[in-house]
Design a protein that fits this description.
Keywords: Receptor, Signal, Transport. With about 350 residues, this protein is α/β, with parallel strands linked by helices. The chain is about 40% helix and about 15% strand. Strand 1 and strand 2 form a beta hairpin.
């Protein structure tokens, strides 16, 4: 199979371009796995509109195209997925609302804004709960995570699979950040940090002395460019593919929260599909999610190094510095653990401990 990032893609609502040439910031990523499995029967044709937040060079987009390829190949072209990148159809919150009403078929939001539907997802927003990627993947593949996916039943949204958004890192245009005091600023004043519309994230930055400002992702670049906010927090891959380095001078490898993506479908769309199509969609979701995690893993360190090449000053915090941030945000656990569920947090920590000790 021709690597998807080197082939010419026709983007829904955008011009045709060759990713390998048009986006020189793309690393040498693994090819999509070969598509295997039997052809499904003819149960009619469906065109599925899928909106995502990130750019065409992101692991999220590349894996979404792989998802589309699986459906197309194994349905003999009867299942077509058109992917709309770059928040063309709205932000995560808007696209989830559109799925509820049936005006959008699929989306790929972060777990954080989805806590409106399943409050238990807020466990992923607790700072420093998932210390390694291996531990995070073990949690996402666990029965605990499956119960979160199942909890969407009846909300108007069918949650299909978890994948990786990644470790959130801090960037800003004001000063280097190496300690919690650098965030709060002491006599200098706290940084104004864009966050997602998520109360745990707001609590993290308030506890650190920042001025958190919820804002749609699609509005973020211009807000930083105009000085409305000083900074933001996202994985290195998102910071790179969204060109935030153009308006952010400083980065800090805080790894304060590991955020999953969630591949979702409107329940109305799901219910319109024949059971054999539903089974194929679920299988394709799991395979494409695994591929997205692989791409995100490959992309993460490369993206950080690339940002440094492009002029961003990145502070790679050591264990002692990370521990200082962990201690500073302990009040977030005290505030939110009873509401999220102490038993749930204990179950996640048990999976983490097992993974770390193996």
């Amino acid at each position: 199979m021709m690597p998807i990032w080197r082939s010419t893609l026709t983007l829904a609502g955008a011009a045709t371009l060759t990713l390998g040439m048009a986006h020189a910031q793309t690393p040498d990523l693994s090819e999509p796995p070969a598509i295997d499995g039997d052809m499904v029967g003819d149960h009619g044709s469906h065109t599925i509109r899928m909106g995502i937040g990130l750019a065409e060079s992101s692991p999220q987009y590349l894996s979404s195209q792989y998802f589309a390829d699986i459906l197309a190949e194994r349905s003999d072209g009867r299942l077509t997925v058109n992917v709309f990148p770059n928040s063309q159809l709205g932000d995560d919150v808007q696209m989830m609302e559109m799925m509820q009403t049936g005006t959008l078929d699929m989306s790929y939001p972060s777990s954080s804004p989805a806590t409106t539907y399943v409050p238990e997802l807020a466990a992923f927003d607790l700072p420093f709960l998932l210390p390694t990627r291996e531990a995070a993947i073990a949690v996402m593949n666990s029965d605990v995570a499956q119960s979160m996916l199942d909890a969407f039943d009846g909300t108007g949204i069918k949650a299909l699979a978890f994948s990786e958004n990644g470790y959130r890192q801090l960037s800003n245009s004001v000063r280097p950040v190496e300690t919690p005091e650098d965030v709060g600023g002491l006599d200098m004043g706290g940084l104004t940090i864009r966050t997602m519309e998520n109360p745990v994230h707001l609590s993290i930055w308030e506890t650190l002395g920042a001025n958190p400002t919820p804002m749609a992702f699609g509005e973020l670049f211009s807000a930083m460019e105009q000085g409305v906010v000083d900074g933001q927090e996202n994985p290195w891959s998102t910071i790179l593919t969204s060109n935030f380095y153009e308006v952010q001078e400083y980065g800090s490898e805080t790894r304060h929260v590991y955020t999953p993506f969630m591949l979702m479908m409107s329940e109305r769309t799901w219910d319109d599909l024949h059971p054999e199509y539903q089974e194929l969609v679920q299988e394709a979701a799991r395979k494409s999610a695994a591929y997205e995690i692989q791409l995100a893993t490959e992309y993460d360190d490369w993206a950080r190094n690339r940002l440094e090449e492009l002029g961003m000053q990145i502070n790679r915090l050591n264990d002692e510095q990370i521990a200082a941030f962990q201690e500073a945000v302990q009040p977030v656990y005290d505030e939110w653990a009873p509401e999220i569920g102490e038993d749930l947090i204990a179950d996640i920590r048990e999976i983490v401990d097992e993974t770390m000790n193996n």
